[in-house]
Specification:
Two copies of one chain form a homodimer. By secondary structure, chain A is an alpha/beta fold. Chain A is 43% helix and 16% strand. The first copy, chain A, folds into three domains: 70 residues, Winged helix-like DNA-binding domain superfamily/Winged helix DNA-binding domain (Arc Repressor Mutant, subunit A, Orthogonal Bundle), CATH 1.10.10.10; 106 residues, 3-Layer(aba) Sandwich (Rossmann fold); 30 residues. The interface between A and B is large, with 59 and 59 residues. Chain A binds a DNA duplex through helix 1, helix 3 and strand 2.
Chain lengths: 225, 225
Amino acid sequence: MSGRRIPDATVERLPVYLRVLHDLATTGQGTVSSEQLAEMAGVNAAKVRKDLSHLGTYGTRGVGYDVDFLSFEIASRLGLASETAVAIVGMGNLGRALANHAGFRDRGFPVSNLYDNDESKVGTEVAGHVIQHLDELGAVAKADIGIGVITTPPEVAQDVADRLVQAGVRAILNFAPIVIAVPAHVTLRKVDLTHELQVLNFYQQREGADAATQPDGSAAWLREI
Amino acid sequence: MSGRRIPDATVERLPVYLRVLHDLATTGQGTVSSEQLAEMAGVNAAKVRKDLSHLGTYGTRGVGYDVDFLSFEIASRLGLASETAVAIVGMGNLGRALANHAGFRDRGFPVSNLYDNDESKVGTEVAGHVIQHLDELGAVAKADIGIGVITTPPEVAQDVADRLVQAGVRAILNFAPIVIAVPAHVTLRKVDLTHELQVLNFYQQREGADAATQPDGSAAWLREI
DNA sequence: TAGATTGTTAATCGATTAACAATC
DNA sequence: TAGATTGTTAATCGATTAACAATC
């Protein structure tokens, strides 16, 4: 059944499936089973079928899914039929790296505007774009920026978010390591690099602790005392 | 009750709480209620108390949590008592930006090694480190690298992951837009920038559709035909 | 027809949340 | 003691998974 509301957990996996389907299309494979798609996406087959069932009944029993057709349907659901312009605010190391990241343009997210509040940077070029002053953000027509990316220091991130919202931006990707607040109609996601390292650290350490735990539940290091 | 196993969802939030607690410590605030911590972390108070209850009973009824003490306990659980060295493989735009990212060192994750397979880059310096050839990865003693970061093109990401695992690295953060496989004892996380934009695009678009949906359930655009 | 594979059901598991007794 | 706030319970919700009838 092609239910109306797609679960959040499923939405998170759609880009992964799309990526795999593109790879399959490149190799010329015409159809794919949930089994193979699952294998390549790093999930299990039941989850793939359940996820896809939320989009519609696009598979053929006994055969699988048509790679191109499924690819198109997922892209449509993700709203990738048209390009979405991206503005990056904060031209430090990360901001410049993202501005130069070819993957954005290639995947339908061309970088259209770069901003900073540092006068020495304003007017210089990065990745073919002249850096504008943050104050010019309001001059952009509402529809011109689909997604705002924040790569500023945390101290100014909330202010930048406010300005983006004021300028009509309704989707924000925040790289600044701070919790920012936006109105309900704005979609916010964050990428916190240190956060990733800390969580990795936790599981790595726990894995080690588990490995050192004996069947009787006592930790190995206790024996070394 | 300080249960042994911390739920994944809680682990994901611990770094956020830690960040907030550090900010509070900086302002000199001695104790914090679950209410305030929740507000600052962007979650609800019941979730904060539930999360913290998995670590132990560190709060005081009627008072709240001691900022420094709780901060220390969370940091301990995340394994942040000692530093964890980070190696970055792939010295493109993103790799160089991460190498220069001061936030890593400041948070206990000093960048210790940089690698690339491009001979023209090997031997040059980035952020005070000489870039080494990928082939030298195996020469690193097991304990020297705590976390490997992959910022290569997707085509070589799996090979790089294999080499990191071979070199004894047990935690990997993958920025290459491809699903990579690692042995069970290795912890893997990924950051896919395009993925983030695609998911943002989905919700932004759906938000628009929701706004255009009338109370009776019909979409607004139907009326415009 | 026989084999393959989907789409869906239902059981299970984990996460969220409100409510409140415990207690500082 | 009275007010505040935790830690825990229990209800609810959403996600995962195995199993299998439907069907190509």
